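Q: What structure does this chain adopt?
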Amino acid sequence: MARARRVRRSRAGRAGEAGGEFRFDGRVWSLTFAGRTVHMPDAKGLRDLHRLLSSPGVDVPAVRLANPEGGVEAVAARSLGGDEVLDEEARVRYKRRLAELEEEIDRAVAVGDDARAAAHDRERASLLAELRAAAGLAGRTRRLGDEAERARKTVTARIRDALRRLERHHPELAAHLRRSVSTGTACAYRPDERVDWRL
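A:
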């Protein structure tokens, strides 16, 4: 038992002694890990990682990472969503108008009025495009002001891009961050072993 504690302490000591650096000097990032230092140009994904490293074990909402200046109120507002882009009444009116346009197009084609048929077809295409834009994933109604999903996608893409670029310059650090960083509507840095970061 005492030996196991000594081993754990010694591993933690090694991680702490080696430590790491994840600092931005206003021009470039200095990144040190496992005894190796690299310098990289600024990128939003590196800023996101810096924020996560500064609060190990803490879930940080993606909307806060996407807009750090927004504050707590902005995070709450963005997470709640808002009114539907199209309410039920508007959807019914759109569908009714689409049915009318179908009939108008059929009548215009029957009498050989290609210009009128084409005009109705353009309006029909425009209405369909608006209906598609109002629908979210799997046909779910999209809501105005709902930025949580957009923030999740944006931040996840930024972090993945930063890790891809980091892989070319410092594979050990990239591997550590891939193991330790989770992304989603909330992101977090949870390393297996403690690392003392100089930030």
